[in-house]
Give the backbone structure.
Amino acid sequence: MKHIISLLVENKQGVLARISGLFSGRGYNLESITAGVTTDPTVSRITLACTGDDAVVEQITKQLHRLIDVIKVTELTDVPALHRELMLIKVSARGRQRGEIFQVADVFKAQVMDVGHDTMSVELTGSPEKIEDFSSLMQPYGIVEIARSGVVSMERSKKAGGAAAAVRADSRRE
Amino acid sequence: MKRSGAQLLVEALKTEKVEIIFGFPGGVVIPVFDALYGERELRLVLVRHEQGAVHAADGYARSTGRVGVCLVTSGPGATNTVTGLATANFDSVPLVVLTGQVSRNMIGNDAFQEADIVGISRSVTKHNYLVTDRKDLGRILKEAFYIARSGRPGPVLVDIPKDILIEASADPLPDTISIRGYNPVYKGHPLQIKKAAHALAKAKKPLFYVGGGLNISGAAEVFRKVVQTVNVPTIASLMGISVLPSEHPRFLGMLGMHGTYAANTAVQNCDLLFAIGTRFDDRATGDLAKFAPHATVVHIDIDPSSISRNVAVEIPIVGDARTVLEELLPLLQPPSQDEWLRDTDGWKRDHPLVELEGKGRLSPTAVIRAIAAAFPDAIVTTEVGQNQMWTALYYTFREPRSFLTSGGLGTMGYGFPAAIGAQLGNPGRRVIDIAGDGSIQMNIQELATAVTERLPVIVAILNNGYLGMVRQWQQLFYSRRYSGVCLERTFDCPPDCAEPTGNCPPYVPDFVQLARAYGAEGIRVTRPSEIDAALGEALRATNRPLFLDFQIEREANVWPIVPAGAGINEMMHPEDREDRGLA
């Protein structure tokens, strides 16, 4: 099963290597890892997508906790959270196919960034599932290249009204 | 006042009350050695190999409970520490290992003696640092000592570029520490402690399972009180040996692959397994699916990642072993376990350890019994293999922290330098390395260190001319195909030799001559009647090391043995093998 783990870590050199080294050294499955600085310049947020059964993921979070440079570990799998990923996808497209792809992109709120003689490139932001759905719809045209950012995540706002509002705002974007 | 980085480093060591540095110099750390020149407060012990430095610091740390300190150069000096770091990391030993690095402007240029030791050592240290700014040096050194000794202890490596060692600055050492990602938990959760006490009071067949965590946290004293209060039978992991005296009436011995009959049988029959400061290592548990099938498991450990990793735990308690046991002690009520005590006493009485035969040479178990009789309060280190298991089983330990052995990593070559470190940290006690003739050669160069430091370390070599533990496996599980294990073998021996013939080539090296070449003493012991006289010499040797070359039975085995992958109650005993003439 896929799990998303959000980390707050010291913004120091070598921290990303410690975390990726933990996964390779202990044989855990890491699907994607993203990192970026937070509002506090000494703190970075790292979002990990990994797979494993519950016992493995429990070990992963415990092992992450053991790292001195890791400040906070939050498992976002079973809590209301926003998950977003960015994909750039280049698809073979000629003639009428262009129009079809424009239409699908429109439904997905994706943006066509670039149209060439034989291919076109689309940018899409959304949940990992949405990204998967879109790329599977593009499959028949012939996918030339894909670049995915890996997932970034954030826990939803806690207050009752706020949470509901967040859900609505989010569903519009989906 | 402006000080160089090297001077600040020396001041930091003094502030941490470091007594001894185990070191070996090299180009980039000359500034630190220069700052140590003429120093009288800090004793610089010059080892002969950096691996020896780390094991010596490790032996010092395990036997004293203080942080061990090493100082080595960049490149090969640093990479030579890796085995020592991994050994200490596995067994939770507090070390600070200081490595020199090439100057910052050279890093990444493949400079002479450059190695990315922070990258290399990341997975074998508790934490490590590359100092990139002179103003961070004081803080990093303070953090390194704090991280090494607190929580679940471990080795911390600090890599310091040469130009930072030279750069002068007026920055003082910090007084306080704040590491927001690191807050070890010492106190146990009160509700969980109550639950554990309740489970123990209700149990019919309770069993304590103690690990190295009790030695590390100084919990042996309170644990002995706990046993006095509830009278519950106790087993130990390899690292938990010496927490209870070996001859304590409630002690059933070590569990695991070479565990005693009583310990392994008790695990498989208990209804409450009360584990403290142990990792449920695979050598201890055997096949997990068959481990402790009837038991509710309580587990106290300072490292949450050790809990429920291998064995599902019903009552977990995260905390320091000593602190939690002190909290638990007043809540304890003795369980009614008369039948259980009869059972465990019976297993112990009816299935004692086998005393091995010498068959014309010496019995290894008789040698260890004699050492225990002559040196009952020694600090004992071991190498790894048969020597380690025989010592764990047959030496009678009394004091906690008196058994130093590489448990997790299983590092041959650990025991001798560790004995040197232990002797330096405990000048009033006798220190004995019970070694094999294979492992002693892995760090034998430290004989020069022991001689020059005038240390009366005793090295009891159980010499069977084999890498004995591998030979035992080849005998039992690989049809006696003795491949790559005979240390008497020469180039003209038959490639398919399956047994010692008695006409084997002479052994190299001659340990007695070798000891003398270093200025130490050596005695060869070939007959049982000579054992006590040799140990008498050892008692009298107080200012130089002594090698005792005990010529033991070449094919003696460690019994019992649980084959790999079996449950720990599926033990093989020598009688199972009598038909094939093995014992």
